[in-house]
Amino acid sequence: MWRIHGLVGRLLTRCQANAPLRLSQGHHYVEDEVLSTPAVLSSGVLPSDSSSQSGGNGDRQRRRRTSQFCYTGLPRYTALDAVGWGVAAMLLMQVCRRIHSQFSSVSELNATQGPYRERGLLQRCGYRALLEILSRRDVLPRGVNVSFLGSVQAIQEGSSGSTQSTEDSSPSHMEGVSLSNDSGDHLSSSGCAAKDTSPGQNPKDKVQEPEEDELTDAANNLRRIADSSVPVILNIIGIESAKSGEYNAAFSCFLASAKHGYSKAQFNVGVCYEKGRGVNRDNDKAAEFYRQAATGGHSQAKYRYARCLLRLRSQQSVEDAHATIGLLEGAAASGVREAQAYLGVLFSQEPLRDGQKAVHYLRMAAENGDSLSGLYLGQCYEWGFGVQQSFRTAVELYKRAATAGNQQAQIILSALCSTASRVPEDTALRSIRSTPCLSTEDAVRLRFRSTFSNLQSGSPCQPLPHSWSTGSFLAQALPSPSPASSPRASGQEGAPCHPTLHLAGFAKTSWLARQPSISTDNNLYFVPSSRLLIFIMWLLAATLPLLAVMVACYWGELGALYRRLLSTTATLSWRSSVCVRSTHSFVFTNCTHGRSESVLETFDQYAQRHPSLSLGPKRGEFLDEVVQRVAPTWALELGTHCGYSSVRILRLLPAAGRLLTVEHDATAAEVGEEIILVAGFKHSQFQLLSCPSEDAIACLRTHLGKGLLQMVLMDHDVGRYLLDLRALEREGLLAPGCVLLFNDSHLPAACALLEHIASRPEQYTVQPQAQGLLEVHCHLLAGHAPQDQGQGQSQLN
Ligand SMILES: C[S@@+](CC[C@H](N)C(=O)[O-])C[C@H]1O[C@@H](n2cnc3c(N)ncnc32)[C@H](O)[C@@H]1O
User: Fold this and answer.
1) pLDDT tens across 75-98, in order?
2) Per-residue confidence (pLDDT) for residue 241, from 0 to 100
3) Is 694 helix (H, G, I), strand (E, B) or coil?
4) Residue of the nearest CA to atom 26 in ligand 1?
5) What is the number of the ligand 1 atom nearest to the C-alpha of 616?
6) Contact residues of ligand 1, CB 6 A cut-off
């Protein structure tokens, strides 16, 4: 490569040296130049011409030579040009290939362990090209890295200056250093140094000795350039890639650069891991790279490493906590605004509360352009926390924060405006403070759940404007936080993430009371709730049309459901003692005692004017028909209430028939029993069991003896129908052919009962429903032989 480069240099030198020939300066000069050209170049062109020169005068010869030159010169130099440009093109391709392999493969980066000359040459060429491009495009804002490379160039200029007397003013002087070596060898071998050397002198002897040392120095310099420039340029390319959204390439570049120990790249790798850019999110690795960068003195990395520590270790030891604070303080001292703001708030709260330190850091952050810190500083002045209380200064600070775009400060100032027209602003501020004023002790309220726990919220952090200048791609690579959570939303351009500065008094101050949507808390505290609210609103908005469609489609069913709900509610309430008492009172007063028909008629009269739970005349007639048809010896009624259906059954029972009626409500049981007695029936014909139906069924056997139920009326709690039916089945109390009547079986609560019956066709037969009473016939139960229907009669006496 060095030889090729030397050849190119020599060719270029020759081209430059021959340039005047093309301008036809003079024939003599041309002739001399032609004669002095190497034989190899002239031999292929001149023989035929020389053979033809058998005499003639000198003018003719000169003209012929001139014409010969004009004829032969163009092809000769075109050939040289072609060779030179071809070699240059090869070199350029090599450089491009090298650069490509450097930047596209991390592994290849570490594999460039070839001969240092080749490596140095390629890297040097690549870096120079990149350097020029990047400088021209102002990729490096501060030009720090450019000047670094420039200094390396200067070193090289010094080392190679002795041999580069005329060409080193151009940016290509580094190439001249290497070219000079090979060109010397090449020239000597080709014997073409006639123009630059005087007769009797050996140019190789003259130049070779000092060039060896210079070349060694140059090579060392190039190695230094390579070692130090690779991570810088990789980091720059990573940033460029991130800017164009190529995060995978960006991460590869950052990682490759970070492996060289370049702290800015380490920081950027940390950002990639933290934000999941070009690599899977990994907070542990992010912390590790931040740590490396912080160790290398990267200020932003110190701040971010401290945040990682706070986030990763929920319960820090005191030592860890102090180490973390130390990191934050180091970053703050380096001018990292986020760290200053963090510390300002951190020292305003327990367990680190220190008013003076809080004010110190808040002031630093405010002067560093953080308007929210300016607002907090104003609060400190307002409340006299860490400083002498001064409303005037507080107003001044609020004004500054408002001017910087802080909305909270603007709200405070707008509240001042109304009174400030009449009194000075500081007086106005004093007047609108909440009364009674909180003491300083109360003003700053502890918000930490554990040590620094509110810093562990993983809040989205606004990148600093200067992060770009520190070589960070944060500002370019990361999406802006949501408007609601972003400090930008409150007009705080580039504001850092704040932990909560919670001044309890602000919850009571009048201006904030008028602006409930604005919180002095960290945005993170109210953003989730507002997001939830927005989500719920969207959900409602999205489901409204669906609801409308459902209402339209199921209007009838919904109406029925609504009525049933009302009815159930009414039932529950009407089953209270008020309903029972009023019913009993009316019937007892208005009926003819001893006459069951009069009792029933009085019930009906009452039901015509009042809500009633009685079965009613229509269903009652159906019940009558069933009782007459079945003529049960043993009938069971669940739900006595005031005794209406009991009287209906009793009056139609056969002479040997008995009724067991169950009522769990004591009042209803009392008045129901009285009405039955008023209707003229005796306890030998009926028995009222005042207990829940399940208890009654459990002890029915003792009442029935060996008898079985031929008829059951369920008119108590629809939800218990199935349970009680199964209990009757279990107890084996249903006689073959027993008729079961279920009131209100159309209610949804009876679904399970209906399924149960429908799924046992061998056991039950459902009769056409009449008057809302479901009639089901029970067949012979397995294991239960028909019983003597008169066996249980003695039990009631
Ligand atoms: C609709 S009323 C009965 C009406 C009665 N059949 C009539 O025609 O006058 C229902 C009665 O059943 C009672 N009841 C509800 N659940 C009960 C249960 N699990 N056990 C016993 N009685 C119950 C209530 O207290 C209420 O008095």
Assistant:
1) 444 566 666 777 777 777 777 666
2) 87
3) helix
4) 641
5) 8
6) 575, 613-615, 638-639, 641-642, 644-645, 662-665, 668, 692-693, 715-717, 720
Rounded Cα distance, 254 and 238, in Å: 6
The whole-angstrom separation of Cα 474 and Cα 252 is: 16
Strands 773-778 and 734-743: antiparallel
For residue range 565-590, what is the model confidence (pLDDT) as tens digits? 776 666 555 555 558 888 999 999 99
Residues contacting residue 103 through CB under 8 Å, at least 6 positions apart: 234, 237, 253
Mutate to test the pocket of ligand 1, among 573, 578, 613, 712 (most ligand atoms within 8 A of CB): 613
What single DSSP character describes residue 486? Answer: S
Instruction: Please state the separation of Cα 48 from the chain's center in Å.
Output: 85
Nearest to 520 by CA among 463, 459, 447: 447
C-alpha 294/C-alpha 288 separation (Å) is 10
State the Rg of the chain over Cα: 52
pLDDT attached to residue 529 = 53
Amino acid at 675: I
Tokens of 114: 């070839």
- Single-letter code of the amino acid located at 258: A
Please say whether the beta carbons of 645 and 668 come within 8 A: no
Spatial distance between the Cα atoms of 434 and 509, rounded to a whole number of angstroms: 5
Kindly state the average pLDDT of the residues 102-111.
Answer: 44
Other Cβ atoms less than 10 A from the Cβ of 374: the count is 28
pLDDT tens-place string over residues 441-450: 333 333 323 3
| Entry field: residues in the chain | 797
For residues 168-192, average pLDDT: 34
Ligand 1 atom closest to Cα of residue 648: 8
Higher pLDDT, 378 or 50: 378
Pairwise CA distance, residues 779 & 763, whole Å = 5
The domain spans of the chain are: 2-42+59-103, 113-194+203-229, 336-510, 568-796
Separation of CA 759 and ligand 1 centre (Å): 27
CB neighbours (10 Å) of residue 540?
A: 10
22 or 721, which is more confident? 721
In order of 30, 52, 248, 394, 755, the CA distances from 48 in angstroms are 19, 6, 66, 102, 121
Per DSSP, 780 falls in state: P
User: What pLDDT, on a 0 to 100 scale, did the predictor assign at position 668?
Assistant: 93
Tens-digit pLDDT profile for residues 513-564? 222 222 233 333 333 456 778 888 888 888 888 888 888 888 877 877 877 7
* Residue 396, amino acid: E
Centre of ligand 1 to C-alpha 568, Å, is: 13
- Confidence class for position 117, pLDDT limits 50, 70, 90: very low
Q: Which of 205-209, 277-281, 672-676 has the lowest mean pLDDT?
A: 205-209
Q: What is the pLDDT of residues 191-243, one digit of tens each?
A: 333 334 444 445 445 455 566 777 788 777 777 766 677 788 888 888 888 88
Give dist(CA 355, CA 344) in Å, integer: 9
Under 8 Å between Cβ of 371 and 492:
yes
**Residue 468 CB partners (closer than 8 Å, separation 6+):** 141, 474, 475, 476
Assess contact for 742 and 750: CB atoms under 8 A: yes
With contact defined as beta carbons under 8 Å apart, do 310 and 346 qualify?
Answer: no
Cα(640) to ligand 1 centroid in Å equals 5
Q: Find out if CATH 3.30.470.20 is the number for domain 568-796.
A: no
Ligand 1 binding pocket mutation candidate from 571, 641, 700 (most atoms within 8 A of CB): 641
Averaged pLDDT score across all residues of the chain: 68
Secondary structure of the chain: what % helix, strand, coil (to 5)?
A: 65, 5, 30
Q: How far is CA 646 from the centre of its chain?
A: 68
The total of other beta-carbon atoms located within 10 Å of residue 101's CB is 15
> Rounded to two decimals, what is the model's pTM?
0.36
Q: Give the nearest ligand 1 atom to 603 CA.
A: 9
The CA distances from residue 579 to 77, 155, 482, 530, in Å, are 125, 109, 61, 49
